[in-house]
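Reopening this one. Same input as before:
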Amino acid sequence: MTDPTNSLAQRLIRNFNDVPMQLHLRQPLYESLGARLAQGTAAVKLGASVDTVAPGKVSCPYHFHHAQEEMFIVIEGSGTLRVAGEMLPLRSGDVVFIPPGPDYAHQIINTSSQPMKYLSISTQDSPEVVEYPDSKKFMAKVATGDASAFRAIQHSSNSVDYWEGEP
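Same output, byte for byte:
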């Protein structure tokens, strides 16, 4: 490929089979290999990642977004989608749509004996607030492109009065 063609391909194309994977491990429940695909591309409003969850493990804490929508495409394996207080079976080929809001708190669990691989696609709305119902905490974040401009994770019980510390 010529230099302009190669440069264009690097901004527009990622092959999830070729990206370096990063281990996310927090025993005893959480274990996955993942890679963010959209970072460094021309994408402005979309994010994408590929994740492989180990058998019997969970990808991330139960949570919901106030701004972002998500879509998950199961590529290999099977598992369970914990969503809105229900446990829904997932298998290869399933496409899951998660709108923002507290009615769609969600978590992907590999309930099988084989690895479960899925593609995550999301809007990259910013600012964003994510709530974690099990642990009663929240994350507030603001991103500018690939960089984080502000990020805070706290328990909801840490709330203070609006006028706290103001003159």
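So the earlier flakiness isn't reproducible anymore. For the record, The chain has a mean pLDDT of 94.
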